[in-house]
Amino acid sequence: MDLGLKDSTALITGGAGTLGLAMATRFLQEGCNVVVCDASQASIDKACEQFAAFEGRVLGVLADVTDKHAVAQAVQHAVDKWKKIDVLVNNAGFARDRYLTKMSEEDWHAVLDVTLQGAFHCTRAVLPMMMENRYGRVINIASRAHLGNPGQTNYSAAKAGLIGFTRSLALESGKFGITANAVAPGVISTPRMQQRPDYQELTERAKSNTPVARLGDPADVAATVAFLASRLAGFTTGETVHVTGGRYA
C-alpha cells in the first residue's frame, strides 16, 4: 500500500535509539527524507553508516531536546537541506525507575524534561512552518505506562502528560491541516531488554498475558507511526494508538 510519504521530510527525536532507527528505516522505505536527531553524536554517526544505502536522504543532527536553541538549530539544518519538515516524531525519552519514596528530584525532572519539555520545544519549533504549509503530522511516542506502573511515577506521569499534550495540540492545529496523535507501545523487545536477566520470564509472561501472545517488535511501532504520518490518516487526530498486542492492564 502506498502511504503517500514519498519526498516527505520526517524528523525523529531519539532517532538513533532502537525505536528511532526502526521508524527511520520504515520512513526511508516509504521514500521519505529522514532527520535523525539525537543527543549522542556517536550514535548518530553509527545510524548514518547503517543507512548508507539511502545516501542523500538521511541527515544526522545533534541536539538535546531540552535545549530550545539546540532544537532550533536542528530544525534549521533540516530546512536548509529539504526546505520543510512534514512529520515530527517526538520519540526522545527514557525510564529511570524507582519507587516514589526512593526517587530523587533529579530522576523526576530528567524523565519529565526530556519527554515533555522536549516535545514542547520540538513541536513549537516546527509548528509555524507546518501552519504556513497547511500540512503536518506530529506523532508523540507515549507508552502503555501512561495507565500507571509501580516504580514509574515519573515515566507514567511524563507519558500521560504527553497524551494530554497531543489532544490539546490536535484541537489547536487541525484547522491548519495538521494532525497530532500519540502511539503507546507496550513491552517491545529491544537489545537492551534482551540483555535483562529476566528477559525469558518477560517473554513467557507476555505469551500468557497478551492476547497477541508475544513481545512487540520495534517494527510494529514503526508501522503504526508510518500510517499516522501518512495522508491516509488525515482525518485521525487527537488519538492514542496502543501498540500493545491487546494488553492494557
Question: What is the gist of this entry?
Answer:
The protein has 249 residues and is α/β, with parallel strands linked by helices. The protein has helices at 18-29, 41-50, 68-82, 105-133, 153-173, 191-194, 199-209, 218-229, and strands spanning 9-13, 33-38, 58-62, 87-90, 136-141, 178-185, 240-243. Strand 1, helix 1 and strand 2 (33-38) form a beta-alpha-beta unit.
Lay out the secondary structure.
Layout: E1 9-13, H1 18-29, E2 33-38, H2 41-50, E3 58-62, H3 68-82, E4 87-90, H4 105-133, E5 136-141, H5 153-173, E6 178-185, H6 191-194, H7 199-209, H8 218-229, E7 240-243
Parallel strand pairs: 1-2, 1-4, 2-3, 4-5, 5-6, 6-7
Helix pairs in contact: 1-8, 3-4, 4-5
